[in-house]
Amino acid sequence: MSMSPALSDLSHLYQTEFVRSARAVGVLWAVCTLCLAIIQVVVLVQPSWVGTTDPRHQGAHSGTMGLFEVCVESDWPVPDCRGGLSSLSPLPSFQSVAVLVGVSLWTVWTSVLCLCLFRFCSAATVYKICGWLQLTAGFCLALACLLFPDSWDGPEMRSLCGDSVSSFSPGSCSVHWAFILAILGVLDAAILATLAFVLANRQDALLPPDTKEVTTGLLMSV
């Protein structure tokens, strides 16, 4: 049964507007995904997860600490840093946290590379793959943020923040911007994963019924 010309024009207009809106939202989602990947790199390499707030505290030094590096202020303009990502060896107290952040970083960048699949696979499939990858990345990063305060009772934290430091108690230190950025990364990953699943479902749900029938007939004929 053929469609009337008016219904056919309305269906074509509906599809055109849907494709434009989906592309605009998809581009924004892809850009935010790339931003999340960059945020993950910054979170991993920056030695600014915690830092001293009261350097006059007994036994404490003024400086900051990350997952791989401890930087203490010295007489030179540049802080005296120990460790680094180049050694691929995180601080002993934060090994589990560094592994979780590394897994999160890997999954996010994998989702970025999966954007190339739009040329070879259906958009719904790519969105679902990226959504699961981003959901995994957010879960790993959230777990790292939860384990990080529990790892404060270590020699590295004691040397920087004083003897009063313990699990969930940073002593003379406080959380710095890299840890806060990691928490924001968790929220970003959750939002992007949700948006990816929504876009995947809307790819088929918003198509007109006649278009679905035609698509199904073509697939069956093949």
Automatic annotation (TrEMBL):
GO terms for cellular component: plasma membrane. GO terms for biological process: sensory perception of sound. Keywords: Membrane, Transmembrane, Transmembrane helix. The chain crosses the membrane at residues 21-45, 97-118, 130-149, 177-200. InterPro entries: LHFPL. It holds the Pfam family L_HMGIC_fpl. It is a multi-pass membrane protein. Its main location: membrane. It comes from the Eukaryota. The keyword Kinase does not apply. This is LHFPL tetraspan subfamily member 3 partner-like. It is found in: Membrane.
